[in-house]
Amino acid sequence: MCGIVGYVGEQPALDVVMQGLRRLEYRGYDSAGVAVLGSDDELRIARKAGKLANLDAELAGTELPGTLGVGHTRWATHGAPTDRNAHPHRDCSGAVAVVHNGTLENFAELREGLTERGHSLSSDTDTEAVAHLIEERYDGDLAAAVREVAKELEGSFVLVVAHREQPDLVIGARRNLPLVVGLGDGENFLASDVTAFIAYTREARAVDQDQVVELRRDGVRVTDLDGNDVEGETYHVDWDTAAAEKAGYEYFMLKEIDEQPEAVAETIGGRLGRDGRLRLDELAISDEDIRGFQQVVIVACGSSYHSGLVGKYAIERWTRLPTQVEIASEFRYRDPVVGRDTLVIAISQSGETADTLEALRHARQQGAWVMAVTNTVGSSIARESDAVFYTRSGPEIAVASTKAVMTQLAAVYLVGLHLAQIRGTRDGDEVRSHYADLAAIPRLIEDTLTRMDPLRKIARDISDAERVLFLGRHVGYPMALEGALKLKELAYVSAEGFPAGEIKHGPIALIEQGTPVVVLATRHALSPKLVTNVQEIKARGARTIVIATDGDDSVTPYADHVIRVPDTKSLLSPLLTLVPMQVFSAEFAMARGLDVDQPRNLAKSVTVE
Ligand code: F6R
């Protein structure tokens, strides 16, 4: 997650770009930078680690005159959040300025080749390689150079590029991540989302996969990577600057739910090396130590605990390592059996949750290895762990966790595969095949999001219910727990999640005529048993809202409402069924007139035990 702006027009570019960056700061605030092309054909750059305010301070009293500029606000992935790694990045001659959102999978090879060919790279970023590649390809046609370079890049990217010999041209290029054109009068804009230019124009044009934009004062041309013109859809944005921080959404939570395809793409992207092996380079635990593990213990709280429960299924399946999942606040008080042969995985969005931090400290005291799965670079949990997997979901503002949980799920699958690859419990073909299934998930989440209107209506219709139950089996069970937690914290109703097979041992007594029961019934080996469980509750009068896989009609005869999700491997289904859990609870709470961004009594980062 990074925010990107490009501008060419008649106004002072610095003001326009800085205003755009302010709107995009939610996408990352590890550093910020701008480049402005002056009338003397000089590209002047200012960049600073930390929040945009630091760049503002840096720029105070300085002039960057010019009417063409690019800007960036960073969520660090390659390279620490320092001034040196802040964008824009330049080539050897200083003629090219590039800003980038995304992760380039082949950046190591690209950098190596550039160094061999005599380029001198001054940052640790993948982005800088792009500036030098453009330098090599440029022969007066900047768009052609960017198209050629884009063909060489593997991974995800949005690039925005300026060149000192091109006073009327900014180039944009896109793969997998968002880029939108703002269409002005005598001026045009490029940005990660429309909030960046909404103060200037509400006319926008979407940019599709593998397209390159040529942005000039008087017009915009969009081509494919071979330079063929492509038609595009323009649209009018019907909200204004006041709504800009939320990009037109009523609540951050709704925006964050919709950001999940991109967030998961960030988590998963760039993990397969050229040799076909999964690469989680940041996990600095040696292969030898990983082979020595005898057990895995996952510690986490709340929604992160539910991600851990899903992780247990994946890790045990793929690695055959016994895996326990522990509520972090309970862990250290029962003298757990962990030692040098134990991998403890601490999952925490904020990286600051005191219960989880104390659990990992206890585990380390016992000699265990600790791996953090967190969204927050430099957080306490990250700093105190032996290895860190960053989920890269971008800043999450709503208190109830949505996209961060989704990326935690993606992360635990990747960690499970990584352990299996090193321990040799899954062969290369199988690891690659699971990775391919994971790589398809962002598109499937996008599809799932388009199917949620009927569920919203159901949620509104039953929003006066004071009790809702959630049932699931296998990996559906943790998602039932998550659905119940979300509903509790947002709508303040009594909600409980159960393993579907367990209800006959007691909870079925809760069911009376009309009790809403959400059943996670996506296709898996236990489906026939789940059908029986649904029949049992239906017979007692439950109003069943069934989440089912496309084409699977085994449970639908017992459903009052059916919500479909796309098919995927059953083990990965939480990455899709999480979406209806979030949408249902948000809509239910909004129908009760509640603020879903700031539920009562809660805080985003729980730093007390
Ligand atoms: C629920 C929620 C909380 C957090 C929990 C752990 O929507 O957000 O249950 O999951 O407080 O927080 P982190 O992941 O920051 O450790």
Number of strands: 24
Q: Characterize the main sheet.
A: 8 strands, antiparallel
- CATH architecture label name of the largest domain: 4-Layer Sandwich
- SS summary, helix count: 19
Gross morphology is globular
Strand content: 15-25%
How does the helix and strand content classify structurally?
alpha/beta
Structure, described:
Strands 3-2-4-1-10-9-11-14 form an eight-stranded antiparallel β-sheet, with helices on one face. Strands 5-6-7-8-12-13 form a six-stranded antiparallel β-sheet. 55% of the residues are buried. The protein has three domains: 3-246, Glutamine Phosphoribosylpyrophosphate, subunit 1, domain 1, CATH 3.60.20.10; 257-439, Rossmann fold (3-Layer(aba) Sandwich); 447-591, Rossmann fold. The radius of gyration is 25 Å and the shape is globular. Helix 11 links the parallel strand 17 (342-348) and strand 18 (369-374). The mean pLDDT is 93. By secondary structure, it is an alpha/beta fold. It is built from 19 helices and 24 strands. Bound molecules: fructose -6-phosphate. Fructose -6-phosphate binds next to helix 9 and helix 17.
Topology of helices and strands:
Blueprint: E1 3-8, H1 13-24, E2 31-37, E3 43-49, H2 52-59, E4 68-74, E5 89-90, E6 96-104, H3 107-116, H4 127-137, H5 142-152, E7 155-163, E8 170-175, E9 180-183, E10 188-191, E11 203-206, E12 211-216, E13 219-224, E14 234-236, H6 252-258, H7 260-268, H8 287-292, E15 295-300, H9 302-319, E16 323-327, H10 328-331, E17 342-348, H11 354-365, E18 369-374, H12 380-383, E19 387-390, H13 403-423, H14 428-439, H15 441-449, H16 453-461, E20 467-472, H17 476-491, E21 494-499, E22 516-520, H18 527-539, E23 543-549, E24 561-565, H19 574-591
Parallel strand pairs: 15-16, 15-17, 17-18, 18-19, 20-21, 20-22, 22-23, 23-24
Antiparallel strand pairs: 1-4, 1-10, 2-3, 2-4, 5-6, 6-7, 7-8, 8-12, 9-10, 9-11, 11-14, 12-13
Helix pairs in contact: 3-4, 4-5, 7-13, 7-15, 9-13, 9-17, 13-14, 15-19, 16-19, 17-19
The structure holds fructose -6-phosphate.
Fructose -6-phosphate is lined by residues 301-304, 348-350, 353, 356, 400-401, 485, 489, 606.
